[in-house]
Specification:
- The protein has about 400 residues and is mainly alpha-helical.
- It has one domain.
- It contains 15 helices and three strands.
- The chain has a three-stranded antiparallel beta sheet, covered by helices on one side.
- A hairpin with a 2-residue loop joins strand 1 and strand 2.
- The longest helix has about 35 residues.
- The termini are far apart.
């Protein structure tokens, strides 16, 4: 009994509670939001998406428990095989993948479909954290310390854009930027990278297809074509406005019955707003915000640069994806089909975030144990973040 207590004591239960609350809310809202879609569009049982999400949740909780117990240093040793397998899978998607919603981003194993690009977010986080933790003595050298690792990022980034999956591309680029910033890169190099990113962004914008460009019109001028490109966002607005402060009640949404397309996926926040109101939305944002801020705090407390960068990358990944999803739902960003972490329907996304949370909780446990060691020396990420806070 004492060994069991000793084994579980270091874990951050506040993170566990936040994750479990978000997953529980997500399950309930997926069941509620998907009723109209399952019956009217697919003629499935009303619990079809709920059951599938529950299965992925159980699998994800197992993965989270596994990564909570698994030494994060092992990922560092397995870094290159993981990267090579990930690149191979991304190529396989382009060759053998199935096109869904104008993007060839799905691989099917029998009836089960996965989105490999989702897991690339974690692969790149592990890779960049491992590489830049090793190159701490060369971070002043732009050509030798900073540029070489970004070649792997560039390959994965281009393979994701070729699907095309602009939303995931934005997220992995953002995560790479956060890890670079926290790794000790000089400020003059930050400006150089920002300029390069701007040039690449402009170049990519002019390469967008008409269908992708229409998403910008839909985001910023939805009422110009409310029955066409702006249809989803306009109906999302209606759903959000109908909820008010406390919502119309769980299960009482009108928009989910054929008005708001795919209400259980990337626009689930609109149904949450309609049924649970501003209070429900605020609770979800607060829980996600807590996870992100706690993750950055864990990174600042870690005395291992690799674990610290890993914590920053995971926290940034969750934060950026939340911003992209909510930004699209309120018309601040183009609609890219990015799910809301832990909430939206999607097995690949849920498995990714639960696995990532297991790693973050593992790092947190190490931080708690290391607090017993006196005179901890601050790492480069401590100095960088404390300089701007």
């Amino acid at each position: 009994m004492k060994n069991v207590k000793k084994a579980v004591r270091p874990y951050d239960y506040s993170l566990l509670v936040a994750v479990l609350l978000l997953c529980s809310i997500g399950l309930v809202m997926i069941y509620s939001a998907s009723i109209g879609v399952t019956i009217n569009k697919y003629e499935y049982s009303s619990s079809f998406f709920f059951v599938r999400q529950l299965i992925f949740l159980l699998a994800g909780l197992f993965l989270m428990y596994f990564t909570m117990r698994f030494n994060v240093q092992i990922y560092k040793k397995l870094m290159m095989p993981i990267v090579l397998i990930s690149i191979g899978v991304l190529i396989a998607v382009l060759v053998f993948g199935r096109e869904v919603n104008n993007a060839k981003s799905w691989l099917y194993i029998g009836p089960i479909g996965i989105q490999p690009a989702e897991f690339i977010k974690l692969t790149l986080t592990i890779y960049l954290a491992a590489i830049y933790s090793k190159k701490q003595g060369k971070m002043h050298d732009f050509k030798k310390g900073i540029i070489p690792p970004l070649s792997i990022f560039a390959v994965m980034f281009l393979l994701i854009l070729m699907q095309p999956d602009l939303g995931t591309g934005i997220i992995v680029a953002g995560v790479a930027g956060i890890i670079l910033f926290c790794s000790g890169i000089r400020f003059k190099h930050i400006f150089s990278m920002a300029a390069l990113a701007s040039i690449v962004g402009v170049a990519l914008f002019f390469q967008l297809s008409e269908e992708q460009l229409s998403r910008f019109d839909a985001a910023y001028e939805p009422f110009k074509d409310p029955s066409g490109d702006g249809y989803q966002l306009v109906n999302g607005y209606i759903s959000i406005a109908a909820g008010g402060m406390t919502g119309s009640g769980l299960g009482e949404s009108i928009q989910k019955y054929g008005f708001l397309p795919e209400p259980h996926t990337d626009f689930i926040i609109a149904i949450i707003s309609e049924e649970l109101g501003f209070v429900g939305v605020l609770l979800i944002i607060a829980l996600l915000g807590y996870i992100v801020l706690k993750g950055f705090w864990i990174g600042m407390q870690s005395n291992d640069t690799y674990a610290s960068l890993l914590a920053f990358g995971i926290s940034g990944m969750i934060g950026i994806q939340t911003v992209v999803n909510l930004g699209a739902a309120v018309g601040l960003l183009p609609i890219t089909g990015v799910p809301l972490p832990f909430i939206s329907y999607g097995g690949s996304s849920l498995l990714l975030f639960l696995t990532s949370m297991g790693i973050l909780i593992n790092i947190s446990a190490k931080v708690k144990l290391n607090k017993k060691v006196p005179d901890r020396q601050p790492n480069v990420t401590d100095k960088r973040l404390r300089a701007i806070t």
